From TrEMBL:
Protein name (database record): NAD(P)H-dependent FMN reductase
Signal peptide start-end: none
PANTHER family, per the entry: CHROMATE REDUCTASE (PTHR30543), NAD(P)H-DEPENDENT FMN REDUCTASE LOT6 (PTHR30543:SF21)
Domain NADPH-dependent FMN reductase-like stretches: 1-151
UniProt GO molecular function: FMN binding; oxidoreductase activity
Coiled-coil regions listed in the entry: none
Organism (species): Granulicella rosea
Domain of life of the native organism: Bacteria
GO terms for cellular component: cytosol
Amino acid sequence: MVVAVLQGSERSERMGDRAAKWVIAQLEARGHEAVLVDAGALDLPILNKMWKELKGSDAKEDAALKAKLQPLAELYARADGFAVVSGEYNHSVPPGLTNLIDYFLQEYFFRPSAIVCYSTTPFGGVRAAMQLRTLLPEVGLPTIPSLQPIASIGASLSEEGVALTQDLAEKSGKFFDEFDWYMKAFKLGRAAGVPY
């Protein structure tokens, strides 16, 4: 399966890199192609035009943004699922992640998403995950039932994305098993035909 791993924090001292590396390692260990989509590295402007409006544009002012978004459009067309790695900002979703998600729409349809949330506190970013439960299905990315919270991320994952706690190292398998199942089921469904 091809999985786009969306990492949404744009802060200079962000901890989400650890979570994204861990997610990629977990997916690759299962034989998936995991591709990082980093909002911080992309440095996208605040949404003005969606990809569907930009892709046919010949305007010079749209050229640089089109060049940034074209590889994402190609990746998303191949993707079987989306792993969304989110911190928690003011009990909600990081603005960079929302902005990244909002650039696309049809490219997400009939593909599942899995939420990996984190924070520096024991809550593990679950309040942001609840906001993502509203946002992701609205753009066509239904979420799998389970969440994977990472509490106290600085003590739970190394800078290289290696699990430092027994819970994270040993008890996350069911989450990825569930994501696998949904990706396979949705892929079969897309192959059989979608309702529109």
